[in-house]
Amino acid sequence: MTYIVTDDCINCKYSDCVEVCPVDCFYEGENMLVINPSECIDCGVCEPECPAEAIKSDQDGNMEKWVELNAKYADLWPNLTRKKDPLPKADDWAGVKNKLTDHFSENPGSGD
Ligand code: SF4
Ligand code: F3S
Q: Is residue 46 in contact with ligand 2, taking CB distance under 6 Å?
């Protein structure tokens, strides 16, 4: 089991999540973070830390797509272990639904 980051993170990247992860398994793309499902120990402490409510358990239902996306990009993106400033329009994008399908197609690492 694992936790994963959904597209609610896109263009927010508050990064409060990385501060609390005991195994440093977050990876950073241009516009969002992902969790490496093979490194996550399923502790759950990151989930309530995200202001955008972007982190979910893979047990929440219909999460297969996000597990695949997180695994794919965790292999491609660099590790992030320290909190950094959110993206400039983070507060505007927090709460926007279906960011990936409506705004970023299948390329979460792209610019807006
Ligand atoms: Fe890290 Fe725990 Fe969150 Fe997994 S559930 S990403 S181990 S803080
Ligand atoms: Fe993204 Fe939330 Fe972490 S917006 S960077 S998953 S705190």
A: no
